[in-house]
Design a protein that fits this description.
α5 crosses α6 (186-195) and α5 crosses α11. The protein has an eleven-stranded mixed sheet with strand order 3-2-1-4-11-10-5-6-9-7-8, sandwiched between helices. β5 (122-128) and β6 form a beta hairpin. The chain has helices spanning 16-28, 39-42, 79-88, 101-112, 147-163, 186-195, 222-247, 251-259, 261-271, 297-311, 315-327; strands at 3-7, 32-37, 54-58, 94-97, 122-128, 133-137, 172-175, 201-205, 217-219, 278-282, 288-291. The protein starts with a strand and ends with a helix. By secondary structure, it is an alpha/beta fold.
C-alpha cells in the first residue's frame, strides 16, 4: 500500500482536524500513514481498528508561522522538516502538511530537489468553475517570475490536467488584463510568445475565465496567483454570509430557502475550498501536498486522497519528458 507522511501538528488548529481527516480517509480507503509529531498526544486519538495502518515519527518542534521560510533548515526537529525527510529517505511515497506553506515549499525544494529541467516549482490549486474545475498555478511559490518560469508552469499544469484530471486536450491560458495578445505587462507579453509553442495554448485569459469553464489551466506568477486565490476564498465566504442574512430577514425568504436547501447545499460543496483538499507542489522530486492552515477534517481527508492519486500516477515522469521535449 501507499505510505504517506503527515505533518500531524503543524496546522492552525493543532492535531485534531488532521487526525479526524486521517481517520475519515482510512475509513474510505486503506493506506499507510506515518504521523509526524508527539506520539503520546497523537496515538490515543486513533481508533483501535485503524492503528495497524499508522506509525509515528517523533518531532519535538512546530515551525512557527511567524518565522521566515528561509529559516526552515534550522528547525531540524520540526514536524515539517521530519515529514520532508521521510519522503527524501523514500520511507513514504507522499507527504502532506497544513503547516507553514513557505517552509514546506522551501524544504521540499532544498531537500528533495527539483525534477530534471525544472527551474522553479509551482503550487497548483483547483478552482471551481461552472461545470467542473480549473487548475490555477502558481498560487504562491514564486512571487518574482521570469517568462521561462511561467512557460514551465504551463507545461507542468498541462501534464497534471492530462494525467490526474483526465482532460485529453487541456486548454491552457495565460492570466492577463485582457484577452488580446498585446495586453499585459512585459512579463505577460514575453510569456505569451513562449506559450505559442504549446499546441493547447488558447491565449490570454482574464480573471473571470477561472470560473466560466472556457479554460482548463490558467498560468500566472505566484504573487498575482496568491492574491487572486485569497480574494476568491474571501468572496465565496462573504457571499454565503450575505445570503444567510438575507434569508433570515423575512419569513418568505426562509420558506424559499427551505425549498432551495438541496441546491444551496450542492452549491456550497462545489465552491467550498475544503472540498479540494490541498495544493500539489509541482516540479519537486516527489509528491508534496500543501494544505491550508485552517483546513478542517474534510479538507485533510481530500488532501490525503490527492496525495494518494498523485503518488500513484506518472505525473513527475511526464513533466520531465515534456520539459525535455521543449529543450531540444
Amino acid at each position: 500500500m501507499t505510505s504517506i507522511a503527515i505533518d500531524a501538528m503543524g496546522g492552525d488548529f493543532g492535531e485534531k482536524p488532521i487526525i479526524q481527516g486521517l481517520i475519515q480517509a482510512l475509513e474510505e480507503r486503506p493506506f499507510n500513514a506515518i504521523l509526524v509529531g508527539t506520539r503520546k498526544i497523537l496515538e490515543p486519538q486513533i481508533p483501535d481498528h485503524l492503528r495497524k495502518f499508522i506509525s509515528y515519527e517523533e518531532a519535538t518542534e512546530i515551525f512557527p508561522m511567524e518565522e521566515s521560510a528561509t529559516e526552515a533548515l534550522k528547525y531540524k526537529e520540526s514536524t515539517i522538516y521530519k515529514t520532508v525527510e521521510l519522503l527524501r529517505e523514500k520511507r513514504v511515497q507522499a507527504l502532506l502538511s497544513a503547516g507553514h506553506s513557505g517552509a514546506t515549499m522551501s524544504l521540499a525544494t532544498l531537500r528533495l530537489g527539483r525534477l530534471q529541467g525544472v527551474l522553479r516549482p509551482a503550487i497548483a490549486t483547483l478552482m471551481p468553475n461552472v461545470s467542473g474545475k480549473t487548475l490555477f498555478l502558481d498560487v504562491g511559490a514564486n512571487t518574482d517570475c521570469k517568462s521561462e518560469y511561467l512557460f514551465q508552469f504551463a507545461i507542468m499544469g498541462e501534464a497534471y490536467a492530462k494525467e490526474l484530471m483526465k482532460i485529453q486536450k487541456p486548454r491552457v491560458a495565460l492570466l492577463s488584463n485582457g484577452e488580446e495578445e498585446g495586453k499585459g505587462n512585459e512579463l505577460t507579453k514575453e510569456t505569451h510568445q513562449l506559450l505559442k509553442k504549446l499546441p493547447n495554448f488558447v491565449g490570454n485569459a482574464e480573471g473571470r475565465d477561472i470560473f466560466n469553464a472556457k479554460i482548463d489551466v490558467l498560468v500566472c506568477d505566484g504573487f498575482s496567483g496568491n492574491i487572486i486565490l485569497k480574494a476568491c476564498e474571501g468572496t465565496a465566504t462573504a457571499i454565503f454570509d450575505i445570503l444567510k442574512k438575507l434569508i433570515k430577514s423575512s419569513f418568505l425568504s426562509m420558506c424559499g430557502a427551505m425549498l432551495m436547501k438541496a441546491s444551496f447545499k450542492k452549491l456550497k460543496k462545489h465552491i467550498d475550498w475544503q472540498e479540494y483538499g490541498g495544493a500539489p507542489l509541482l516540479g519537486v522530486n516527489g509528491c508534496v501536498i500543501i494544505s491550508h492552515g485552517k483546513s478542517d477534517a474534510r479538507a485533510i481527508k481530500n488532501a490525503i486522497f490527492q496525495a494518494l492519486n498523485f503518488s500513484n500516477s506518472h505525473i513527475n515522469q511526464i513533466i520531465e519528458s515534456e520539459l525535455s521535449a521543449f529543450e531540444k
